[in-house]
Amino acid sequence: MNEALRDKKILIVGGTSGIGLAVAKNAVQNGAYVIIASRNASKRLPALNNLPESSIEMHVLDITSKEEQSRLFEVIGVIDHLVVTVRPEIKSAPFQTIDIEKAKIAFETKFWGPYHLIQMAQHHIREAGSITLTSGIAGEKIYKGASTMALINSATETLCRILAVELAPLRVNVVSPGFVEPKPQEILEYATRFPAGKIASLDDVAKAYIGLLANPYITGTVSVVDGGARLI
Ligand SMILES: NC(=O)c1ccc[n+]([C@@H]2O[C@H](COP(=O)([O-])OP(=O)(O)OC[C@H]3O[C@@H](n4cnc5c(N)ncnc54)[C@H](OP(=O)(O)O)[C@@H]3O)[C@@H](O)[C@H]2O)c1
């Protein structure tokens, strides 16, 4: 149990699936109260059934809608921590053939959505709290066909450093995952060649968020959880 999270109110945007859901479970197991928000977060997920009902609430939110963001904060009030794990729909494509309109929608979801959400949330997050965003290995290592995510992820990491200074003493950090569920099995198998030599569990990644939320002296950093992918 990480006592630093006991009774803390944590909003997780993108918490209905994958990494965000794993962060939600870990946070509740560490005594936090979790608010999950995403487009389909209308009803309690079976994956949360073994956790106390009184420690989780769900809200529908499309992160690209300023109106929905504003309504959400009216309802939930003040929080201690904000975590964003939204994933845009974007297919891998060579730069020459990228559909720029789809690339812009991906930016709206994963970059401008959180950007605006933070502008709105800064007045709703306690001073001793934090914001944790999500980037990804493509922001650092160049993979052919992944340029849109590369640009979004590196912009997110730069935004983190800017906000760590401009919003201080509020802390702002990023987690950069390598490859984990729900990536296709062949990609997960490929990832066993990285130095860590195993397929990452969602829990391996979620624990990086918990560490950043709980540690009052970490800000402006990127916590890389990629099994060493960027080194080879
Ligand atoms: N999995 C990996 O291997 C990997 C690797 C590198 C980086 N990442 C990054 O890690 C983050 C989490 O990825 P994941 O693999 O865990 O994704 P995931 O399982 O697909 O979950 C994505 C979450 O984002 C929510 N979402 C999508 N669009 C949204 C919108 N417009 N407004 C609000 N919520 C929205 C989804 O819920 P709804 O559908 O209900 O809206 C869902 O809860 C992403 O930023 C991804 O780029 C993942």
Provide structural commentary.
It is a single chain. This protein has one domain: Rossmann fold (3-Layer(aba) Sandwich), CATH 3.40.50. The protein starts with 8 loop residues before the first strand and ends in a 7-residue tail after the last strand. A seven-stranded parallel β-sheet has the order 3-2-1-4-5-6-7, sandwiched between helices. The chain has six helices and seven strands, in the order E-H-E-E-H-E-H-E-H-E-H-H-E. The model has no long low-confidence stretch (mean pLDDT 96). The protein is α/β, with parallel strands linked by helices and 232 residues long. It is globular. Helix 4 links the parallel strand 5 and strand 6 (171-177). Bound molecules: NADP nicotinamide-adenine-dinucleotide phosphate (NAP). Residues 13-14, 16-20, 38-41, 61-64, 85-87, 109-110, 134, 136-137, 177, 179-180, 182-183 line the site of NADP nicotinamide-adenine-dinucleotide phosphate (NAP). NADP nicotinamide-adenine-dinucleotide phosphate binds next to helix 1 and helix 3.
